[in-house]
What we know:
About 45% of the residues lie in helices and about 30% in strands. It has two domains: about 5-35; about 40-110, Single Sheet (N-terminal domain of TfIIb), CATH 2.20.25. A hairpin with a 5-residue loop joins strand 3 and strand 4. The protein is built from two helices and four strands; from the N terminus they run ααββββ. It is an alpha+beta fold. The chain has a four-stranded antiparallel sheet with strand order 1-2-3-4, with helices on one face. The model has no long low-confidence stretch (mean pLDDT about 85). It has helices spanning about 5-35, 40-60, and strands spanning about 65-70, 75-80, 90-95, 100-110. The protein is elongated and about 90 Å long.
Amino acid sequence: MAVRLKAYTLFESVIAMLIIVTVFAIASYSIVSTAGADDSYKKTKILFEFNRMADSMKVSRQFIDAEEVIDDIHYFRKAEKYKDAENLIQLHFSAKTEDGTLIYEQRELVLE
């Protein structure tokens, strides 16, 4: 003998699922907006760009000074001989805002 469920149990289940989905949507929105406003997020993004630039320079072996603008941040890269060493190059990366305020800078030594 099959047991038949009444219609209101299905209705209650649908309402409960909608409430749970709404709560999770609000929670995920607040987490994303909080993480996006954090300074560590901006520094992580800048470090990612620095690493991308350094990797492209090392792979191509072309140590050329350049400037890129990504998301209103100016990325500068500069390559110069390191002191009196013959085969060492110092890579200097810096990130500045539109008004020239320094956000972050990094230096790295590379074998030529």
